[in-house]
Write a structure and sequence with these properties.
The protein has about 650 residues and is an alpha+beta fold. Among the domains are: about 190 residues, Nucleic acid-binding proteins (OB fold (Dihydrolipoamide Acetyltransferase, E2P)); about 150 residues, Alpha Horseshoe (Serine Threonine Protein Phosphatase 5, Tetratricopeptide repeat); about 80 residues, no CATH class. The chain is about 40% helix and about 20% strand. Strands 5, 6, 7, 8, 9, 10, 13, 14, 15 and 16 form a 10-stranded mixed sheet that branches. A 4-stranded mixed sheet has the order 17-18-29-26, with no helix packed on it. The chain has a 3-stranded antiparallel sheet with strand order 2-1-3, with no helix packed on it. Strand 21 and strand 22 form a beta hairpin. The longest helix is centred in the N-terminal third of the chain and has 21 residues. It starts with a strand and ends with a helix. Bound molecules: S-adenosylmethionine.
Length: about 650
Amino acid sequence: MASKDGNTVFLTEQEAERIRNTVKDRLKKCDELAGHARESRDTKTAISTATGASLMADMANMGPSKGATMPAIGLGQPYPPCVAPLQDLQPMELSDLRMETHHRGYRLTVKRASPVVNLAARSWTMVQDEAGEEIERLELCLHKKRHGKELLESADSVFIIKEPYFTLTDDGEPTIRIDHPSDLVVVPESEAGSTNGTNGEATHATAAEQKARSCKDQGNAALEKQNLALAHAKYSEGLKLARQDIVYKANPDLARDLSRNRAHVNLLLNQLDEAKADAKASLIGKEDDQRSRELDSKAFFRAGMAAYNLGQYHEAKELFEQRLKLTPDIYPKETQAILRRIEAHLREQEAGTHDLKKIRAGLSRARPRVDAASFFSNTAVKESPGRGRGLFATRDIGAGEIVMLEKAFCVVWGFEDDALTAITYDVRDDRIRVSPVGLSRAIVQKLLSNPSQIEKVMDMYGDWQGDSNTKNVFSTADGPVVDTFRVHDIVSRNAFGPGSQYGEKGAQDASTGLWIRAGYTNHSCLANVQKEYVGDLMILRATRAIAAGEEIFHSYDESSDYEARQRALMHTWGFECDCALCVVEKAEDPAVRKKRRELAEEADAFVQSQPWANANRRVIVRAQRLARAIDETYDGEKYKGLPRLATKRIQEWLAHAAPRR
Ligand SMILES: C[S@@+](CC[C@H](N)C(=O)[O-])C[C@H]1O[C@@H](n2cnc3c(N)ncnc32)[C@H](O)[C@@H]1O
């Protein structure tokens, strides 16, 4: 575990080595044991170990050092999630598990047998199979919660593990390990009778209708108590019954009521795709009936809000217009106000007409995200030879003009509960990094809640592109499928920090986010746009005139030192920059670069220690001398038309200080 303090993450060489060795030792042992039969555990010992560990973890989570250490996570052995529906998988028993094996084609049904051990980046518990004869450890890595609740804590539930992966923990202990949340199906015990985890079809219409009604009542009661997850589960259970032909033909309104109610819960849970679909499915369409109009008005509102929150403003406009037309007497002012907001967002989307001053004024720590549309029409994504895909200007853009505005797909602010930073060691490149795993986690949650968004996130660049046969499968009959290793790798290469806008500070507190469109922008040290942030709205502004067809570049790393810059680009983004500036710098005598680096360090120290306000003549002369000395390290001929990055800070200091003398 690394300790953290203020802006720095401390990780000594020994600690780094220990993390490396732990991961490598584990992999070695896994290799040796691959295919071996599982050894039976003693139930009593297993439960008492888990109980002790659970207590210790709870105490650590409550203690004074809470949050003072960063979890360490080993990476680099990605495997795809299961893409088969439960009903196509064969049942297996705990005793069938083989070490270091993905049991493809199988499913395992278990029940929790001990308390849950809740750690920062993982949770584990002991589970027993249906016969209760065997006991084994089950671990959920990182993606261990759903709607803020620990999945393993689900009371009275059975867990069905799709294509279980049996491996070793870092401590060398056997465990079933789940990395992809879609590989775990949590089924209420009452429903678990049918082995595929779904309700058996009720054959008798009246009995099914009665059961569906009871589910609706239970859903309503759960909603009243703000138990959204239970309300959703109950409405879903009821819907399954109410949508059966025999029930639907006799009473179509029951399915509509359940859909309308679930739409409401889905909106509260930010499950916008299903909220929209449910609300639309609930429409009755009897315009001559007052009650039907009222209910459909509600449905149009719910579908409209879901579309609005998904940024689908054209659809949202249609839905709210239909609402107004259908029930001009129900909250007309509110509907008109939403329609005005939608019109404003459509203008933002088409012409980039954002009122940034107003947007900025509406932001606070309590409301850190903007309500604004993205504006992309000045840009297009195309191939960029040697760099994968890139972003290109579709028209001439003047210096200082806005090139693009994008609302983040997801931002985790450093002060939010979702924030989590971990030390990650990746065996693929033997590198240790500080990774915003809280952002990966939040993205996965958002994708599970809004499966229509999965494909566009998965299209982003990342090292692990998924299994070639299954990489484009994003759902099964059991729900959405998200490859969390892919999300992690996408975050590694595409996440940016919107800076400290709400008082976040320090490495452990850094805010990070994912902007999908901006993610296609390649790097150049000779960038033509600069990034700015207003809340979670990223603004790319032209730093010089950009001609139609030109590629848009921003700078991923602004270090003036060539070596430091290349190191950061290779370490974080995996490439070597070959822009015109890097070509010249690379060809220079390393001794010249070293001298420039030392002078730049001296200049940085000077700038930090000497305030420019009221600087006296002697101090200014010193700054001028330093600037000249750095300047002299540049060959005038070779650097013609190229920036002299190392002089930047001292020149800025001089620009502030000199005019006042
Ligand atoms: C944020 S993505 C940029 C979009 C990416 N090119 C794509 O195809 O989706 C970052 C990745 O693009 C590539 N890249 C960006 N700038 C580059 C450059 N100047 N030269 C080579 N590769 C670059 C690297 O692979 C980097 O990890």
